[in-house]
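Input:
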Amino acid sequence: MTTEQTFLVRLAERLPAARLRTDADTLLEHGRDWTRLHTPAPSAVAFPESIDEVQAIVRLANETGGHIVPSGGRTGLSAGAVATAGEVVVSFDRMNHILGFDAVDRSVTVEPGVVTQTLQEYARSVGLFYPVDFAARGSAQIGGNIATNAGGIKVIRYGMTRERVSGLKVVTGRGDLLDINRGLVKNATGYDLRHLFIGSEGTLGLIVEATLTLVEPPREPAVMLLGLSGIDVLMSVFARLRERVQLSAFECFSDRALAHVLARGLSAPFDTPAPWYVLAEFDADSEEAVAAAMEAFEAGVEAEEVLDGVLSQSETQRLALWRLREDITESIAHRLPYKNDIAVRVAQVPEFLTEMQALFAAEYPQFEVIWFGHIGDGNLHISVLQPADMAREVFIAECERVSEHLFATLARYGGSVSAEHGLGLVKKPYLHYSRPAEEIAYLRAIRQVFDPSGVLNPGKLFD
Amino acid sequence: MTTEQTFLVRLAERLPAARLRTDADTLLEHGRDWTRLHTPAPSAVAFPESIDEVQAIVRLANETGGHIVPSGGRTGLSAGAVATAGEVVVSFDRMNHILGFDAVDRSVTVEPGVVTQTLQEYARSVGLFYPVDFAARGSAQIGGNIATNAGGIKVIRYGMTRERVSGLKVVTGRGDLLDINRGLVKNATGYDLRHLFIGSEGTLGLIVEATLTLVEPPREPAVMLLGLSGIDVLMSVFARLRERVQLSAFECFSDRALAHVLARGLSAPFDTPAPWYVLAEFDADSEEAVAAAMEAFEAGVEAEEVLDGVLSQSETQRLALWRLREDITESIAHRLPYKNDIAVRVAQVPEFLTEMQALFAAEYPQFEVIWFGHIGDGNLHISVLQPADMAREVFIAECERVSEHLFATLARYGGSVSAEHGLGLVKKPYLHYSRPAEEIAYLRAIRQVFDPSGVLNPGKLFD
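Output:
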């Protein structure tokens, strides 16, 4: 028997058949994420229901030489949870309970399979707010959010998933169960392992429970959508708004991005066309706050930076304006875009964007490029659309060629080759553009500490 | 020659004599921190002026088998920067420059020897705010703040030092220079080493540069000081205020703590005596905000939880009220108190406090115990005063005996044996109460990765 077969036999002794699936549909569905670049080929999918079971699975992998791919909502965009080589996928679909809430701590304790939106709704039901938010909220799971340090659209105000985690239970690659930080605000007792697991993409341990701190809800959020004269005025529009209002989001997108969303039947925000748009969300809980936002708008018009704009007058209109930004990904999904998710320091955005546009005009003249991003965090999403008359392989090869140019430029800025999507399999070849060899050597040694047998998510992040 | 002598000889080739000091005064002053439990005995004190020099020192230590104790403002309370065994102290006193500020990123880049208060003042000069704040602000250095993940009095609103660090340059124990995260908001490219170095107390690497994110200043902060009927009403007073105003601090102290401060000539806040006091700071930028605070006060009086109170009417009065809380440490410093700095989850504070008071009444009947703390973070400082007629050694031994009881109780709560003071030498024997053996094994392995020869801060944290 191969090691994976031995692993499976031993797993079958531990888990009932209904929770150790090998049917083709389950293998396909749980063997992949939202990327479509690899052929999923797990040997089985395990559905543990308890921490004990997760620990048993990891220990069996160590004993048999088996391999594990942890799997949350499978909405990843870097193939971090894709199983391509006979691994056993460990799905947290059945560990999806909210375990407790403490009103004084304002913290909620959850199993890893709780869906992000479920947590958001739960937070609202107790008068609080879970601010990590992104388009995949309806499928993504908290365990995956933590494993990738999910960011999204509210980072400018509330930070990444990292900022929310006050406690973490983890089964390490060696099979130890660690109960880290236990919901404490202050705890200066040696290295904070919590932050090592956050963003580790399932390579150091499996997250089996988390305690998350909720925040005060935003106060009567409103959205202002503005059409800008060009990309060069982006930061000046940003500065004017940030000075005057309490921003909870500052997003941007190009006219081409908007065109794809409008093609699906949404209404244009206003008649004036603009090459770039920004969506700013802010607390509109007083007349002063709304007046301050209007003042920023008028100053922008005066400066000939803002061509037109609209301010949401109701919750319905606020959500409708958000769709112009949030539906971009879905509107181009059928085109299977090649995606990059990069970041530079916020202050570097205009210069970097200008350089990127020149690079793309030179290297991608035949491709349609869709830009959008969380510009208040220095984070840009770049989606390249495949021309109808080009073969998939040729297209991917061409995109990878241009990515090398893009990342070489990014390295000059000290930027990140993956702002919030992680490395997985897709960005792994480009890690060296963001982290030098001597730093990667430390990452490798840390992985060795937690998973010396290499049972967790083999081949992801780095070799 | 001993290894430390060889190390010194090689250092003398690299550094001018004026920056490699061995005179008795320098050895004494730079060989200790604010604790007075160990005899300082470094072999020399090095004052590097550049990252290159720091790297050279660490490399020489590796080559010769020498040992290094990093030293900031030496205000530590756990002997994390004390040199007791012929180590070379590396002081960052001469690397004390503010290197740059970016208004768009709102970030400031500093050398590690910049004093906390200097950074606070710099932030104010650019219209922003550096919120990490504590009584030792005038001496503590940013490098030490980061190495201990300093907390203090504004954590409830702004978090710990950890939350401020967007970039870190570190010379590891192996002598590698790492440039980590470079000021990015989003960066999902493998394990975040930044958070491993933050709070590592100089055992993994020496912090040689940091980029820190500043925040918006609080809006017209005011202080309300309240006298409470007892410790049992603390959390209900907290909840009432937190619901109504934007808190930036929520501190508590006992009548005995206040008595020591008043003995130094400060005025009592009001005539009504109370067993416990809280100091709440909040944004008083509108009549509504002030009215909301008054409403919380009145509801507290109505509920017979609040006995009396005062609201600052000016900046002078706000600062004067703060002194009643902040001067506690100084007012008892001449008594060389035995200190504990512990934390539980915020929600557990009342139950834990009750249990602690019973323990102390039983075990410490002859000692005066001074309580104060950052109660909004679940963090308590407990200072035990030595009776005049008791020998120092007997007193310390007795305190250590009671500490074991205290920490055993704390362990039942999942609390922290060091909330914000770190472990150093003083709390190292108690680490096992907060972190189980299997977790400490991982900490030890991580230290081995970054400092395989054990040149950095030997004997600190754990063996």
